[in-house]
Amino acid sequence: MKFNYPVLGIDVGGQNIKAGWVKERTVKDFRRVPFKTENIKEELLKLIASFDITKDVIIGVGFPGFVQNGIIYTPPNLPTINELNLEELLKKETGSHVYVFNDANAVILGEALYGAAKNYRIVVGFTLGTGIGGGFIIDKEVYTGSRGFACEIGHTIIDHSGPICKCGKRGCLEAFIGAYALTNRYKTLTDDDVTVKDIFKRAIRGEVYSKRVVDEFGFYLGIGINNVVEIFDPDIIVLAGGVSKSGDQIIEAIEDNNPYDSRCMEGVRIVIAKLGDKAGPVGAANWALKKHRLRNGREFLGTY
After folding, report:
1. What is the pLDDT of residues 63-81, one digit of tens each?
2. Cβ neighbour number for residue 73 with a 10 Å cutoff
3. If both were cysteines, with which of 39, 54, 77, 111 could 14 make a disulfide (CB 3.0 to 4.6 Å apart)?
4. Are residues 122 and 92 in the same domain?
5. Of the candidates 102, 128, 153, which is a domain's last residue?
6. Is residue 300's pLDDT more than 50?
7. Residue 225: inside a domain, yes or no?
8. Where are the beta strands (DSSP E) in the chain?
9. In the prediction, which pLDDT does 296 show?
10. Predicted TM-score (pTM) above 0.70
11. Cα separation of 48 and 277, whole Å?
């Protein structure tokens, strides 16, 4: 089926690729495809090929890891990739206009443009999933830093004696609250393999060990939130990603286990993302469209 939408938005996560044709906040022909980490390039190309791609199409891709000028560097949860010029690869394979940046930036930009933070100027967001990402948005613009590496919240160290993170450092926020960290912690306590979704469900029922894991999650996430508020002084904190689907239970875990009573936190809203799995494609597509217009002239796409 063809849509009169010239931008394909793609969000590559730690376990799934989300994609669809995007116009502003609307996503058509949305797809969510799981992949194995060792096959990520092949699966991404296969998914793109399944859309009706032409040379006039713009493709915006959010991808995990450090991203600079379309090159992906060492994403901790995709160990088969070390240094990959994804932008050039996709341009060569599709013949289309391709723009690549960090996946968490894409998600939080989507929420800042059309989701939970659309009415706010200064937005910081956490993507809570396989790993932990972050995005910093000022007046609907992504702040990426001097090299494109800004706001890697998940790899800020909160306890130098903590567990080893997949990035190789010790005590990163991700090593405490990434999905793999939560399931590993629960297994340590119970010798039971369950999903993060199961942990949160069991905690609601009052199961002791799952409640402990959720409380610890709220405590460490609270530390991460306090740290970014102290640095960026945002209007709002958005919690996105797969784990955020536990919704108010996460907010309660933060509030019940908040390690700090900081004046800086006064007036800062903490909310759950609204766009769900479509936030990444929306953010990636809108960012790519803007980049393309700046590079080629706004008139190229008329009144998109």
Report:
1. 999 999 999 999 999 999 9
2. 15
3. 77
4. no
5. 102
6. no
7. yes
8. 7-12, 16-23, 26-34, 58-63, 66-68, 71-73, 83-85, 97-102, 122-128, 132-138, 141-142, 236-240, 269-272
9. 79
10. yes
11. 17
